[in-house]
Design brief:
2 helices, 2 strands, mainly alpha, 66% helix, flat
């Protein structure tokens, strides 16, 4: 790859990152103005989403264990993904 081509690729990636940041900013402005949500409301929605994701994970795990025909199946560890905080919901001791 030539030096000029590398610079153009770098500029293209920077432009893509700026475009993505602009989309996020535009969405945040739209969310704040259209829905009339204050920052505390947005924080509450995000905090609630974390617990709703934990509840969904518990339900899916229970369904998977229930559908399995093996009576020896036990859940020994259940944790949230990192983007929801990575909290351990259940761990057998």
């Amino acid at each position: 790859m030539a030096y000029g081509q590398m610079r153009v690729l770098l500029v293209d990636r920077i432009a893509g990152a700026v475009t993505a940041a602009a989309r996020v900013g535009r969405f945040a402005v739209w969310l704040a103005t259209t829905t009339r949500m204050r920052p505390s409301d947005l924080y509450a929605a995000l905090a609630t989403a974390r617990y709703m994701a934990a509840h969904e994970l518990i339900e899916r795990t229970a369904d998977a264990v229930e559908m399995d025909d093996d009576p020896e199946v036990d859940v020994v560890h259940l944790s949230q993904p990192l983007w929801f905080g990575g909290a351990t919901i259940y761990e057998e001791r």
